[in-house]
Write a structure and sequence with these properties.
Layout: H1 2-29, H2 43-52, H3 59-73, H4 87-122, H5 127-141, H6 144-158, H7 175-204, H8 207-214, H9 219-231, H10 233-248, H11 251-256, H12 262-272, H13 275-303
Helix pairs in contact: 1-13, 4-5, 4-7, 4-10, 5-7, 6-7, 7-9, 7-10, 8-9, 10-13, 12-13
């Protein structure tokens, strides 16, 4: 197990290197640039700007300089559109907000989705099954820009239980987290509920489950100790990319509830062709995805001892 962990950690280095390299050149080959605008910039001014950001150098030299800044100083460079802030500052100011929102939302989705999947599997083709899966279908079908305003209308404007927008550093405090957390968790809850239901149904038909029941074990022990350990493997594999996606893909929820997260930065960087900010977004997103996949691989071995790492 220790050797596997070391090998997986070492494999992260070439993976990130390939991601950074491909992203750098693909972005530079795309049409347009950070200083392209409807209003034409005088050529002398444009050349001075390009020289300031070393963009007048050959592309390979720019790439080498960028790698050197990342490896030696962890510097993602200046933002071309937000001239008074660096990429590190922009991501550092917004990423904690998105991580808090995404972590709570995914935790809620995992707990409720797993419970719904267990209920549906144990009550197959009965009303709890139909109810849980109907809610899951709604979560998959209805977009977040519809779910969010509906929750605002009901719980904020009609019932006045919760604030319509804001964040936890405002006067409303942690109440501002509830509505965006539920909204963001809804589709992930739906996928986890469907995944866990199908997996639990498959495990319930296994020989070792019939053996456990034949030994006279309590149903709760069979479900918690034997069924869930095997049935949660597909859910765990889903949680890796889901965690990175829920953090960086929450732009709709952050816009609806005015949450100062990283989602807006991600979208604006692409619209503005802000090379360094796009690269910073890609590196952060990729690092989260690779790290979570690494964690998933480790948890796999803990959940299912039949999986051997050699």
């Amino acid at each position: 197990m220790a050797r596997f962990i070391i090998r997986r950690l070492l494999s992260i280095i070439p993976t990130m290197f390939i991601i950074v390299t491909l992203s750098f050149f693909l972005i530079r080959f795309a049409p347009g640039g950070p200083f392209s605008s409807e209003k034409k910039i005088p050529e002398a001014v444009l050349q001075n700007i390009l020289k300031k950001y070393h963009m007048d150098e050959p592309l390979l030299q720019q790439y080498g300089r960028y790698l050197q800044d990342i490896l030696l100083r962890g510097d993602l460079g200046p933002s071309y559109r937000y001239s008074d802030q660096t990429v590190n500052e922009l991501i550092g100011a917004t990423m904690p907000t998105s991580i808090i929102l995404g972590s709570f939302a995914l935790g809620l989705a995992f707990v409720l989705g797993t419970l719904a999947g267990i209920t549906s599997a144990l009550r197959q083709n009965k009303w709890p099954d139909y109810l849980s899966m109907s809610i899951a279908v709604i979560g998959i079908s209805v977009p977040l820009f519809v779910i969010g305003p509906v929750l605002q209308l009901v719980f904020a404007m009609k019932l006045s239980w919760l604030p319509t927008s804001g964040w936890i550093n405002s006067r409303a405090g942690w109440k501002t987290l509830i509505l965006p957390m539920i909204t963001l968790a809804f589709p992930y809850f739906a996928y986890i509920a469907r995944l866990s239901r199908g997996s639990i149904l498959e495990v319930l038909r296994s020989d070792y489950i019939r053996t456990a029941r034949a030994k006279g074990l309590k149903e709760s022990v069979v479900i918690l100790k034997h069924v869930l350990k095997g049935a949660l493997l597909p859910v765990v594999s889903y949680l890796g990319p889901a965690f990175s996606g829920i953090i960086t893909g929450s732009v709709v929820v952050e816009t609806v509830f005015l949450v100062p997260g990283v989602g807006q930065i991600f979208v604006q960087s692409a619209l503005n062709r802000d090379y360094t900010l796009i690269m910073g977004d890609i590196i952060v997103y990729s690092a989260i995805l690779v790290a979570m996949n690494f964690v998933v691989d480790i948890v796999y071995g803990l959940l299912d001892p039949r999986i051997a790492y050699k």
